[in-house]
Amino acid sequence: MATLLLSPLIRDRPPFQISDGASTRNLQETSRRLRPIPGTKPHNRIPQASKTPPPQRLPHNIHGLPPSDEDATQSVPALCESMPRNSLVPFRELLAKLNNSAVVPPVTCVVSDGVMTFALQAAHEMNVRCVLFWTFAACGFLSFKLCADLIDSGITPFKDSSYLTDGSLEAPVDWVPGLENFMFKHILTFIQTTDPNNVVLSYVKGEIEANSKASAVILHTFDALERRVLDVLSPMLPPIYTIGPLQPLVDQISEKTAVSSMDFSLWKAEDECFEWLNSKEQNSVIYVNFGSYEVFTPSEIQELALGLAESKKNFLWILRPDLVKGNSGVLPPDFVAETKDRGLIVGWCQQEKVLSHPSVGGFLTHCGWNSIMEGITAGVPFLCLPRSTDQPANCKSVCSEWGIGLEISKNIKKDEVGMLVKEVLEGEKGRKMKKRGMEWKEQAAKATACPHGSSFQNLERLVKEVLLK
């Protein structure tokens, strides 16, 4: 969703005219995956920036994944394998079509996802500038860079599966400036393999190497949050523009512009959800959401549910119908009845609005970067359960670097879940994290403030120095 937020920020600055690439396909796919559980209300439309659609869109099957396969986007290896093979040609054709159109001006700059550098190749072929937008943290990007270095040095793939038990994942990566307090287990989960032909590792390495050819790189973060890592990254990359958190910047767009009508929520915010939150005391609710794509085993969901029940605390749980592998009916018997007075389970919600509600006192999350940024913007402490990709790096930063989170063990147990929920909502550590979280909230607000915030100014600089160059 971060890419959708960046688009109106650029569009709001004349004289730009934007064609929104594959956004329609992405939204349709996400919307499909977020079908509500029984009793919830689906959003009946896809967000639009204005009543006039963009002049051209990419073919819906550009990713090369079978549209009939409901789990296609769950397979990262399949996506990494198909992207280079199926994306370059149609994107090249789209650019050529736009440049030969009598209706729209020619393309002068491409803004692409940082791990979709086929767009960079096509742009270079047509002598068009290309900016790569990374929706990760700076520490997440540095983890990608380290992943490529580990491949070059022969450290990963590991020689055999003993790395899982011999302490290899606990080894520090203190030779990497900016990641001195990190261990191998905090780096991208892609490195945890013994397969020398691992398609994801090869893809990551190629994408990182291609980033050096971009006109500029955008990172969805703000200077005060990751200054040390940003200083490390600066010599490695083209000009870096830190622009985040994005939502507060979008909120500043004048109501007179077309983008003011844009609705970024894929589901209507359920009135029941906010009525329920309004009935709870301040900082008394743990909000539970594991994003759009992470999946759990039935036993993991049962441990989470039992932990929430045993905490005796209020909770709002966003429970996707496809959150559990192979079986959606896995909540413990009597769980709903036992927690009905202090728990609410819904299919989806408007997350940034929920996190800003006074009754929400903590966020149990998978540590996806968009969720972390929304939580920081709201000033809530985190209860972290990282699962894949850059999430362990985000978790490490949240808990150790920024002091606003606690981590649940990978082997989920109800007793620990219940204990940590209580600690976040009413413990001494929770109070300290809340205080620190409010300090980071203030820093995020300063970064996005008009006209002197660092992220606001970086957006202006990006437009003048790169997009209009």
Keywords summarizing the entry:
alpha/beta, 2 domains, Rossmann fold, single chain, 469 residues, glycosyltransferase, quercetin 7-O-glucosyltransferase activity, 7-deoxyloganetin glucosyltransferase, 42% helix, 4-stranded parallel sheet, 6-stranded parallel sheet, UDP_glucos_trans
Largest sheet: 6 strands, parallel
Helix-strand string: HHHEHEHHEHEHHEHEHEHEHEHEHHH
Structural class: alpha/beta
Distance between the termini: 27 Å
For the largest sheet, list the strands in their spatial order. 7-6-5-8-9-10
CATH architecture annotation name of the largest domain: 3-Layer(aba) Sandwich
Uncertain spans: 22-70, 258-262, 264-269
Query: What's the level 1 CATH class of the largest domain?
Result: Alpha Beta
How many domains? The number is 2
Specify the CATH homologous superfamily of the largest domain: Glycogen Phosphorylase B
How would you explain this protein's 3D organization?
GO terms for molecular function: quercetin 3-O-glucosyltransferase activity; quercetin 7-O-glucosyltransferase activity. Residues 20-29 have a biased composition (Polar residues). Residues 13-73 are annotated as: Disordered. With 469 residues, this protein is an alpha/beta fold. It has two domains: 2-18 and 40-64 and 83-252 and 451-467, Glycogen Phosphorylase B (Rossmann fold), CATH 3.40.50.2000; 271-445, Glycogen Phosphorylase B (Rossmann fold, 3-Layer(aba) Sandwich), CATH 3.40.50. The protein has helices spanning 2-11, 23-33, 76-99, 118-125, 138-152, 199-211, 227-233, 246-251, 271-278, 298-311, 335-339, 351-355, 369-378, 391-401, 414-426, 428-448, 454-467, and strands at residues 109-113, 129-134, 216-219, 240-242, 285-289, 314-318, 343-346, 360-365, 382-384, 405-407. Strands 7-6-5-8-9-10 form a six-stranded parallel sheet, with helices on both faces. It has a four-stranded parallel sheet with strand order 1-2-3-4. Helix 5 (138-152) packs across helix 6 and helix 10 (298-311) crosses helix 15.
